[in-house]
Design goal:
With 234 residues, the protein is an alpha/beta fold. It has eight helices and eight strands. The protein has an eight-stranded mixed β-sheet, sandwiched between helices.
Length: 234
């Protein structure tokens, strides 16, 4: 009986040893990486800008048609994101160096309505797709946000016209063969990645234009909100 019990203990020891050996031989599980999409947080200084300030910083004629599209486009459909201020992370690139900002956009509907009668109803019709301008809401809202960017990031510069059919969209100087201005573009969705794709497409063409002395690229996305303002030339 004692001999039998000793054999049982020996067998148990062997089994434990085998399990330990298997554990050592088994490949270690790789540590689960944190969300790859999450980038290191960037510190941003906040710039607060009231949309009605555009009527001071720029001429009325260049601002008036952009207000309702901005009101319709910026808030989006999410109630959680439809409260002021509307915050856009903005990357301002000059000479290859990037300044990281956060644009906090606000507006006073009463003040805007004094400048643009019927603007609130116009914005509603754009949102509800009952306006003939609905197809152009992203384009016009992008122009409006570009006017904000010019006013904030190029202080003192004033728009003198809009280009038709060629870059740059927004003109700061119309001297022949020495154009200065801002090329604007926007996307409703896609965030920063969508804007970087636009940048890749547009920069070579802007650099190749011998009639442009100075040009900035102004890119905006509504969801996820993001903005890029880059001096491409000189």
């Amino acid at each position: 009986m004692l001999a039998f019990m000793g054999a049982k203990k020996t067998t148990k020891k062997k089994t434990v040893a085998k399990k330990a050996a298997k554990r050592k031989a088994a490949p270690k599980k790789k540590a689960t990486p944190k969300k790859a999409a999450k980038k290191k947080a960037v510190k941003r200084s906040t710039v607060v800008y009231a949309l009605e300030q555009l009527f001071t910083d720029q001429d009325n004629d260049f601002v008036i048609d952009c207000i309702a599209p901005v009101l319709a486009w910026v808030p989006g459909k999410s109630k959680a994101k439809s409260r002021q201020p509307f915050k856009f992370p903005v990357d301002h690139v000059v000479g290859g160096k990037t300044t990281h900002l956060r644009l906090a956009l606000t507006w006073d509907m009463t003040a805007l309505a004094k400048r643009v009668p019927g603007v609130e109803d116009h914005a509603r019709r754009l949102r509800e797709r009952t306006s003939a301008q609905r197809e152009h809401v992203t384009e016009l809202a992008t122009y409006g946000l570009s006017l904000v960017a010019i006013s904030v990031l190029l202080p003192g510069r004033r728009v003198v016209g809009y280009m038709q059919g060629a870059a740059p969209d927004i003109l700061l100087d119309v001297t022949p063969k020495q154009l200065r201005g801002v090329e604007a573009a926007g996307r409703s969705r896609g965030g920063e990645n969508a804007l970087l794709a636009i940048r890749t497409d547009k920069v070579p063409g802007l650099l190749g234009r011998s009639d442009i002395t100075e040009v900035h690229l102004s890119l905006w996305c509504a969801s996820a909100r993001h903005g890029i303002m880059e001096q491409v030339k000189p």
